[in-house]
Amino acid sequence: MKNYLHYRLEDFVQDPYFRQWVLGQVPSEDSFWPTWEANHPEQQEILEQARTLIIAFQCEPLPTAPGEIQRAIEQILSATRPRHQPSWLRRYGWSVAASVLVVVGLSYWVLSERTVADPESRPAAAGTSTSYAGIEKVNDGEDPKVFELSDGTRITLHKHSKLRLAPDYGHSERVVYLSGEAFFEVVKNPEKPFLVYTGEVVTKVLGTSFQVVAYEEQANISVAVKTGKVTVLKQNQSAAKPSLSDEIVLTPNQQAVYIKANERLVKTLVEQPILIGRPVPYPTFEFDGTPLTEVLASFEKAYGVKIIFDEEVFKNCNLNATLTNEPLFEKLDLICETIQARYEVVDGQVVMYGKKCP
Amino acid sequence: MHHSKVPSWQPDQAVTFSEQGQEYALWQAFKQGDRDAFATLLNHYYPILLNYGVRFQSDREFVKDCLQDLFIELWNRRENLDDVRLVKLYLLKSLRRKLLRESQRLRWFREAKEVTDDYSFEVQFAIESYLIHNEIQHEDLKKLRSQLDKLSKRQREAIYLRFFQELEYDNIADIMSINYHSAVNLVYEALKLLRKNWFLTLALTTLFIS
């Protein structure tokens, strides 16, 4: 038998037997605690305090909608249901399925765009039509404002920016009109593509996060991708059909810039590429006599950025370095410094030039 | 803190973990691809994990997405999983890791800043509704609330794991990636703080006696 006489408050609170009694988990014929309490009136106060704390530290039950948990469990069960399929598909089934959705979604869009491309059906840009009665969000201040749309999509509207929702937002598409700058975190819905109209540029996604900068007074419109895949198109008012060359597909860390002056849409990299995928917060890049080709491959993987170079030229280059959370371009600068090479960003890719290492 | 004195949940009343052997068998069956075992695990642990997860992220859909990913990964990797003795511990820990990682990812995108190990842990202890139910006066309630607010997020999490999930200190330490003594200290300091500053003055005691 434990010596409960020496118990302090903290000990009672954590004593399993006492807890069970307080929480009504001992059989009603078990009279140990009522008896003990009666026999030790001097301990009564501490017992009351312990009792209160035990009850107080219970957690409020989580309110759930009827069937909510059951539905979630069934989703998991059906997602993992074994099918008769090749093992590679079983292993990568999900990512394959995801990219198929993207592709399907894209072709659906391209097809349907041809039928609705007539300019009457869709006002070209924010601010050009007054007949729209959709919801409008305006940020006149200096600080970014965050708001959430009915489908859970979250939008961070930056200073002096305006966002308008099409009145039929979420009906068959999710269309918004932006002037200024905003960061979008779009809730995935392959059936209802999310489209941002900004002047001459349309950005289309199924669910992802990306940044759009389209101030009317600025020379460029830019779209930068953080996650997922984004399609950027030039809105061609004069042509009857949008031509494929006016469309750019962006992956994380890539950016599309539309140069208003010469109406050109180009692909480049964002200023600060961030790590993609799900690595540990900052993977350490430790290189000890590591071939440069391997080093660059690890960057490609971590940042999702294609790095092009002549393997023949760099085959004898090895690197000793420990790199961590420097931005990608700083890492590249360091390496170029070491091996007397240089790089440039072309069409959303890094191209490295250099001399043979001895 | 004398950790030798730390009470354990298990010793005499081993009710909580009496099914440990059974659970081990369940885990083995799951690893061999038994769909029923997987469903049993899901039914039992999904609500527990969801309850834990929403403490970190108020966005419940986000937590559910993480849970779905977690269980799909478990199923896909089942043959390579370790022999887990305490499934609950393993799952809580995996979910915590996933949630923090995913939230960090979200934060990067929002503000491309340096990542810290910062996280929040919000838990509504039953104490408020309990006090209201017992007609505790407004002043006492306010006092208590301010004391609870003083608890750090780590203290809150440790208390939650200890008193709601009923875990042992070594398990709490494991989940929170801290050492055993820190886990013990988090709970004891929180208890001491509440006892010292707030305690349940006369109002409450008389209530019980009456």
UniProtKB/TrEMBL annotation, chain A:
Residues 285-350 form the Protein FecR C-terminal domain. Residues 147-230 form the FecR protein domain. InterPro entries: FecR, FecR_C, Ferrdict_sens_TM. GO terms for molecular function: sigma factor antagonist activity. It comes from the Bacteria. Pfam families: FecR, FecR_C. PANTHER family: PERIPLASMIC SIGNAL SENSOR AND SIGMA FACTOR ACTIVATOR FECR-RELATED, PROTEIN FECR. This is Ferric-dicitrate binding protein FerR (Iron transport regulator).
Automatic annotation (TrEMBL), chain B:
InterPro entries: RNA_pol_sigma-70-like (IPR039425), RNA_pol_sigma-70_dom (IPR014284), RNA_pol_sigma70_r2 (IPR007627), RNA_pol_sigma70_r4_t2 (IPR013249), RNA_pol_sigma_r2 (IPR013325), RNA_pol_sigma_r3/r4-like (IPR013324), WH-like_DNA-bd_sf (IPR036388). GO terms for biological process: DNA-templated transcription initiation. It comes from the Bacteria. SUPFAM superfamilies: Sigma2 domain of RNA polymerase sigma factors, Sigma3 and sigma4 domains of RNA polymerase sigma factors. Residues 41-108 form the RNA polymerase sigma-70 region domain. Residues 143-194 form the RNA polymerase sigma factor 70 region 4 type domain. Keywords: Sigma factor, Transcription, Transcription regulation. One of its GO terms (molecular function) is sigma factor activity. Belongs to the sigma-70 factor family. ECF subfamily. This is RNA polymerase sigma factor (Sigma-70 family). It comes from Rhabdobacter roseus.
